[in-house]
Amino acid sequence: MAAGAAPANIDVRGADGRPLAGAIVMIDTPRKPAAPIRFTWGTTMGQRNIQFDPRILIVPVGSTVTFPNYDKVRHQVYSFSKPKKFDLKLYGKDQSRSILFDRPGAVTVGCNIHDAMSGVIMVVDTPYAAQTDAAGHAALSGVPAGGATVRVWHPSIRSNGNVLAQAATIPATGFTASYTIRR
């Protein structure tokens, strides 16, 4: 961990007080990374068992996301979301398509053939982003100490872009916070 960099542990709870799994936590800092943003989980959103896998994917701005089809049926993946509109025409098993995501924001994806299929690609311009686990917890490392904005995205958040944003100060010793989503 670089000097002045701290761990951040954030818990997110729903309006009912229960842990909120699948929320995306992002920390924006004035200090921009020197190298391109990369995450350990890759940039692939497959179609498997008539659903997107993973259902939620975080990628940095400028990423090309691949959409391989592992199902025996054909899919037509699309999005009407403002950050990225696209329509991948029908393609079958063991075929793949790719799209460049060049603007930040939540991109909801679906399949024109299978209405129950839905997923989200969160395109971020910060290296400090993670999805909450089943316990509503997200752990981020290497966050620069100082002023920051913590943003939490989840479809149940009833605000512009489904995002809750709050100013925070990240101490050099680490940051721990809990956010409860109000409806």
UniProtKB/TrEMBL annotation:
Q: Which InterPro entries match?
A: Cupredoxin, ET_Amicyanin
Report the domain of life of the source organism: Bacteria
Looking up SUPFAM superfamilies in the UniProt record yields:
Cupredoxins
Please report the name of this protein according to its UniProt entry.
Methylamine utilization protein
Q: Which organism is it from?
A: Sphingomonas hylomeconis
